[in-house]
Write a structure and sequence with these properties.
Length: 260
């Protein structure tokens, strides 16, 4: 059985160029496949690291981020207005999108429909319809296949808004699901479901800082049914972890040298 790749770097400034190279390779493969790059992103600490990876000017044609071809979705989102401090869209906008050079054609971004914030089931259903439309219809595809998912890992092993032990981990039908009892605030959210996450062409996790080392040990040395471990099991070597050394201190799982 294939296993997740674990790439570790002394610090975020060494991790960022590797993440950039990996994202650009996924981007180019997506564009070659269907003319666009369909990517879903998390909130939390990810957008800041992503900005560090993707904002520097390209060093060559091969190193270019083709923002005009990006179609950005949210791996999870909180049921709040887009300008709320808890919004994952808001975070991506302030950390990354607002910092693109003015001459850049902005990517297509798919935020949640904030008219539906009062009903998380409707919010999730509407976001699923966005995917249905973008991925050519639920009748023709069993699951949407993202070119890349860029995910975080919480200190409890959650990813997207899939939390340890939560019934949502058993969801097999919906592509996007509501959650009303997230243990991490805010409680009301929507999230991609596990089958969608594990079916992506590639899944990249970014986890940095010593605050993650205990959960990294658990994920890579047993799994314990943690959501991040379930993604590793489902995606195998399509999953890659970009971490800094403090996040994997004491983790015995074999790191790979980063080579594309
Ligand atoms: O609540 C959330 O947390 C996770 C992890 O965040 P991090 O700050 O520990 O990286 C994040 O991936 C998710 O999108 C977010 O809604």
């Amino acid at each position: 059985m294939s296993q997740a790749n674990l790439y570790s770097f002394p610090a975020v400034d060494a991790l960022a160029p590797a993440l950039r190279a990996y994202v650009i390779q996924a981007q180019n493969a997506g564009i070659a496949r269907h003319g666009v790059f369909k990517v879903a992103v998390s909130g939390g600490s990810l957008p800041k690291t992503l900005a560090q990876a993707l904002l520097p000017a390209p060093s060559s044609d091969a190193d270019t981020v083709h923002w005009d071809k990006w179609e950005i979705f949210f791996a999870d989102e909180r049921a709040v207005p887009l300008d709320h401090a808890d919004s994952n869209y808001g975070l991506l906008k302030t950390e990354l999108l607002d910092k693109l050079p003015p001459s850049t054609t902005q990517p297509t971004v798919h935020p949640i429909d904030t008219n539906l914030l009062d009903d998380t089931q409707e919010l999730a259903d509407q976001y699923e319809q966005v995917l249905v439309h973008s991925f050519a219809g639920r009748d023709s595809v069993r699951l949407p296949i993202f070119d890349l998912l860029l995910l975080g890992c919480g200190p409890d092993g959650h990813t997207c808004s899939l939390f340890p032990g939560h019934e949502l981990l058993r969801e097999t039908d919906a592509w996007v699901a509501p959650i009303e009892d997230s243990p991490k605030p805010p409680p009301r959210r929507v999230t991609l479901t596990l089958p969608v996450v594990t079916h992506a062409v590639k899944v990249a996790f970014v986890a940095t800082g010593a605050g993650k080392k205990e959960v990294m040990k658990e994920i890579f040395e047993g799994g314990n049914g943690l959501p991040c471990a379930l993604v590793n099991e489902g995606a195998g070597d399509r999953a890659s972890w970009f971490v800094d050394d403090p996040a994997v201190e004491g983790v015995t799982y074999v790191r790979r040298p980063f080579n594309l």
